[in-house]
UniProtKB/TrEMBL annotation:
Record Pfam families: ADH_zinc_N
Cross-referenced InterPro entries: ADH-like_C, GroES-like_sf, MDR_fam, NAD(P)-bd_dom_sf
UniProt xrefs under SUPFAM superfamilies: GroES-like, NAD(P)-binding Rossmann-fold domains
Keyword terms: Oxidoreductase
Origin superkingdom: Bacteria
Name of protein: Alcohol dehydrogenase-like C-terminal domain-containing protein
Domain Alcohol dehydrogenase-like C-terminal: 194-321
GO molecular function annotation: oxidoreductase activity, acting on the CH-CH group of donors, NAD or NADP as acceptor
Length: 378
């Protein structure tokens, strides 16, 4: 394994407060010294970076931050301190994160890459790992907080998509929070996204009547291929009127990934003992929309109209992996991904993810060749 040149590393840093959706000028790609690795650490060449909408509330807002950002907890904005990251904020000058919460959790990461150098007994150069936390080309990561990947079993990027934290979030929300029962009607917003894809498929498999919500005919078609009986195109149709037509008896579970203006019409159609599962509020992160309910507070305080946070379910991660890999091998689970290229494209990918201006599925950014499949990509 050739060591990279000492000046080969690059990082994406936050350059200024962000007004709504991120643009390229809100960030800067800068040189970064090649990390020195300590005991049990790995030097990893990043290949794919996960894009997740939940990183937006951590970024500095231009003007007043929406309620969702307050829900993430108090913290500083503006300090540059790479060594002691504040899990609830990414300040100006700090490194852009891929994973949302840097920690020793095995599922906190947001990149997959190739081990270049190892000081951990379980890893060797040439291994592929999940577990980088930042948008940078080379990263020192702790072997104990990483997962070794087997490219012969699954594509390495599957650990950001099919097995990524978003998919795990969908699994936890469905399995541990929603209390679903066969025959019930479940509505899933952002149904073509990384969380939604998982919820739609699990619910369909288990005999629920699934109605998705997404934007655009192509994503709605995709949601129906996943098993939804119908998918409401939120940009073409009034969601309330569509639900009156599609589910006149009402809705048992609203698995809400979007919050915002979409929430109330579905909430109003919940049956007695219905459940509003507040998973996320992608419509609110940029500050353009608000729910009539304080969704950031519902999620952050885990109130029942039930919010949940995937970090509370770490013990379930092995069960999730086992089930999803089994379903994937059986050919009974689908997923979609869209790949952007280069650190410079991270802001655009995040904006597309937040707004829904993407082809659906999990969004990734590839920043170096994928040597697990013979070096495809940049
Ligand atoms: N609770 C937790 O622990 C936890 C953990 C991870 C993620 N999450 C949350 O789960 C949600 C889904 O995450 P993901 O990674 O799978 O993202 P995603 O669904 O791939 O991306 C967000 C989607 O939200 C939809 N959206 C954007 N603006 C909207 C609006 N104004 N009204 C309605 N829908 C809008 C868009 O889909 P369409 O355009 O197709 O509608 C967009 O693609 C996010 O809110 C995320 O923050 C929660």
């Amino acid at each position: 394994m050739n060591m990279p040149a000492a000046d080969a590393n690059r990082v994406l840093r936050v350059a200024r407060p962000i007004d709504g959706l991120p643009v390229a000028e809100d960030f800067a790609v800068e040189p970064l010294p090649m990390p020195e690795i300590g005991d049990r650490e790995l030097l990893v060449r990043t290949i794919y970076i996960s894009i997740a909408p939940g990183v937006r509330p951590l970024l500095p807002y231009k003007g007043e931050a929406p309620d969702v950002a307050q829900g993430a907890g108090a913290g500083r904005v503006g300090g540059a301190d790479d060594d002691v990251p504040n899990p609830t904020r990414i300040g100006i000058g700090e490194r852009m994160r891929s994973g949302i919460v840097p920690s020793m959790s095995k599922f906190a990461g947001g990149t997959v890459g190739e081990v270049i150098q190892s000081r951990h007994p379980d890893y060797a150069p040439g291994d592929f790992v999940f577990g980088g936390r930042y948008c940078q080309l080379y990263e020192a990561i702790h072997g104990d907080a990483s997962i070794k990947l087997d490219p012969a079993q699954l594509p390495i990027e599957a650990d950001l998509g099919l097995l990524g934290r978003s998919a795990f979030t969908g699994w936890c929300g469905y399995r541990r929070v929603a209390d679903p029962k066969a025959g019930e009607t479940i509505v899933v917003s952002s149904a073509a996204g990384a969380v939604g894809m998982m919820v739609v498929q699990l619910a369909k498999r288990e005999g629920l009547d699934v109605i998705g919500i997404a934007s655009g005919a192509s994503k709605c078609d995709f949601v129906q291929t996943l098993g939804a009986r119908a998918c409401i195109d939120r940009k073409a149709e009034d969601a309330g009127a569509a639900l009156d037509r599609l589910a006149p008896a009402g809705v048992d579970i609203y698995f809400d990934n979007a919050g915002g203006f979409l929430q109330r019409p579905v909430f109003d159609r919940l049956k007695p003992f219905g459940r509003l599962i507040v998973c996320g509020m992608a419509a609110e992160y940029g500050g353009a929309e608000q729910s009539v309910l304080p969704t950031g507070t519902i999620l952050g305080k885990r109130l029942r109209v039930q919010g949940f946070v995937v970090l509370d379910y770490e013990d379930d991660y092995p069960a999730f992996r086992e089930e999803v890999v089994r379903l994937w091998r059986e050919g009974s689970l689908a997923y979609r991904q869209q790949v952007y290229h280069g650190l410079e494209e991270v802001p655009q990918a995040l904006a597309d993810c937040l707004s829904g201006q993407s082809g659906g599925g999990k969004l990734l950014v590839q920043v170096s060749p994928d040597t697990s499949v013979g070096g495809r990509g940049p």
